[in-house]
Each structure stands twice: as structure tokens, then as C-alpha cells.
């Protein structure tokens, strides 16, 4: 009867050593133990080591405003896409962005949950391009866009929205980005003016895209003063 024994890396059948068959692939231990160099998206911020505090018997980790402000600044150009009924695959979102949105650089796309995606853009110009986009369908899913804000929660309704609105009663000579940006301060934050407005193809009304804070009362109208004359907008 042949006896199989493992001797120093070989199998032995009683007469001849038989080389061990090499294993195919890596073991779980090898895979987990292998370090991979990954490039971090955000620059690390050195922090002062703090002792863990207790508040109402619960551990509390507190950061100062000086430490937190740089982290929020790194999220200034972040947009959230909220889908209904469900979020498409990230590959589909990236392909849609590349085909439909003329951005300066492709954003970093990540999943927040089954309905939300996070887009980290290269700058405010790309953020504006995404927010003012008229398209709200991606495949079979509908979506809304809004700017990421500190304290954002996927289960809470966003506190801001983007809307195209028409300004009546404004002199056509003000149909310039610089003036429209200042005029919109009477309502909310100006994002972009419609090309037809800037080209005076419809001088009766100025169509602008604004970012509206839903926590503030809705403005029904406001006045613009020009050469001692008030215009109701």
C-alpha cells in the first residue's frame, strides 16, 4: 500500500519524491495582508490629540472650528443626486455625466445609499452646470440635484433646491450676468442666466436659474433702484 507523506515540500510514495502541485491564486490571508497604496482624495489635516470627553455619560469627540472649517471647504463643490425610484449603477451615472454634461473635468462619483449619489466636482463652474441642467431623467430613473450641505442626511428632505424663474419688470439693459447676479440677491443665489435672455431674444422677461433656500420664506417680489427710479420685480 502506498503511503503519502508530506516531506519538506514534496509528497513521498515510498519510492520516489513527487513535487508538490503549486496552489492557484492567493489565500484569504495573503489577500488581506497585502497592502495597497491608494491615493487619498482629500489632503490630510494634522490635528492636536484630544482626550475623549464625556457628555451625559456618553463619549464625545469634539473638534474646534479651526480644525473643521478646512474639511467643509473641501466639500464646497459637491453635488448630491437623489433618484426615484432607485439609483442607477455608478458606471451608468459616470457614462451619463460624460455624455450629457459638458463639464471641465469629470467628477468623482460615489454612492451614498440606494437612492443618492455624491458628485465631487472640480470647481464651482462644474457645480453650476450640473445644478442648472434641465434634464432630470437618467435611464428609467428620475433625479433631483442639490448642493451638499454640512449635516446632510439621506433620510431627510434637502433644505435647498434649484429652480428656473422669470423676472418681470426689469429693464432689458440689465440683462447681463453681472447685473442679474446682483438682482437675484433680492431673492436667492444666482447660478446662471438663460442664453435667450442674454441675447435679448425675449426682452420682456429675464429667465434665470437660482438656488433657493427652502428654510427661508418665499419672496413674492422685490424692488430694484436705478437712477432714482424704483422697479418692482
From TrEMBL:
- Cite the DUF4283 domain residue spans from the record: 75-152
Query: Which PANTHER family does the UniProt entry name for this protein?
Result: DUF4283 DOMAIN-CONTAINING PROTEIN, GLYCINE-RICH CELL WALL STRUCTURAL PROTEIN 1.8-LIKE
Q: What is this protein called?
A: DUF4283 domain-containing protein
One Pfam annotation reads DUF4283
InterPro entries linked to this entry: At4g02000-like, DUF4283
Amino acid at each position: 500500500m502506498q503511503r503519502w507523506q508530506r516531506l519538506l515540500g514534496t509528497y513521498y510514495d515510498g519510492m520516489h519524491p513527487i513535487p508538490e502541485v503549486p496552489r492557484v491564486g492567493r489565500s484569504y490571508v495573503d489577500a488581506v495582508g497585502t497592502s495597497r497604496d491608494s491615493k487619498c482624495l482629500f489632503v490630510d489635516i494634522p490635528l492636536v490629540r484630544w482626550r475623549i470627553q464625556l457628555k451625559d455619560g456618553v463619549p464625545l469627540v469634539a473638534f474646534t472650528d479651526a480644525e473643521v472649517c478646512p474639511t467643509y471647504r473641501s466639500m464646497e463643490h459637491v453635488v448630491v443626486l437623489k433618484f426615484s425610484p432607485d439609483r442607477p449603477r455608478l458606471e451608468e451615472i459616470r457614462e451619463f455625466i460624460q455624455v450629457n454634461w459638458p463639464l471641465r473635468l469629470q467628477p468623482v462619483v460615489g454612492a451614498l445609499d440606494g437612492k443618492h449619489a455624491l458628485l465631487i466636482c472640480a470647481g464651482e463652474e462644474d457645480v453650476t452646470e450640473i445644478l442648472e441642467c434641465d434634464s432630470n431623467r437618467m435611464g428609467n430613473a428620475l433625479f433631483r440635484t442639490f448642493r451638499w450641505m454640512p449635516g446632510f442626511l439621506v433620510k431627510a428632505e434637502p433644505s435647498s433646491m434649484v429652480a428656473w424663474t422669470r423676472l418681470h419688470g426689469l429693464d432689458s439693459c440689465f440683462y447681463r450676468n453681472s447685473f442679474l447676479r446682483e438682482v437675484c440677491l433680492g431673492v436667492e443665489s444666482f447660478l446662471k442666466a438663460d442664453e435667450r435672455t442674454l441675447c435679448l431674444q425675449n426682452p420682456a422677461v429675464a429667465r434665470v436659474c437660482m438656488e433657493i433656500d427652502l428654510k427661508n420664506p418665499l419672496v413674492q417680489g422685490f424692488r430694484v433702484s436705478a437712477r432714482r427710479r424704483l422697479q418692482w420685480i
